[in-house]
Amino acid sequence: MYKLVFTHTYLKREKEFLKKHKDLIERYKKTLRLIEINPYHPSLRFHGLKGKYSVSITITYRIVLTFAVKDDEIILIDVGHHEEAYS
User: Fold this and answer.
1) If pLDDT is split at 50, 70 and 90, which confidence band does 84 have?
2) pLDDT by residue (tens digit) across 68-79?
3) How high is the mean pLDDT of the chain?
4) Chain CA centroid to CA 25, Å
5) Residue 75, CB-side half-sphere exposure with 13 Å CA sphere
6) Which residues of 46-76 are buried (b: 16+ CB within 10 A; e: fewer)?
7) Strand pairing partners for 53?
8) Alpha-carbon distance 50 to 87, whole Å?
């Protein structure tokens, strides 16, 4: 299992995201649990993204992350709309 590391910036974005998208809270939580267990799970649609990585909450929304593999940690950077992740 991986340890999720929530940066201060991420927690701020997460709060904003969940406030706007109350209908995605359970799906978001499920996504985080799955990242901890297996970030490469096919349903997450894990892929590289300009030195970072992205996983899907839904087709529209993503979580952008980096890996610190030596410590089995996944550092969460951002959560938001698909287009935001690619800008």
Assistant:
1) low
2) 656 788 888 888
3) 87
4) 13
5) 12
6) beeeeeebbbbbeeebbbbbbeeeeeeebbb
7) 48, 65
8) 10
The token pair that represents 48 in the structure block:
């590289």
Q: What ranges do the domains of the chain cover?
A: 3-85
DSSP state of 57: S
- Residue 4: its H or E element: strand 3-6
Q: Are 61 and 24 in contact (CB under 8 A)?
A: yes
- Give, in words, the CATH class of 3-85: alpha beta
pLDDT digits (tens, 9 = 90+) for 23-48: 999 999 999 999 999 988 999 998 88
- Which residues on neighbouring strands pair with residue 75, listed in sequence order? 5, 66
Beta carbons within 8 Å of 36's beta carbon, 6+ residues apart: 1, 2, 3, 4, 74
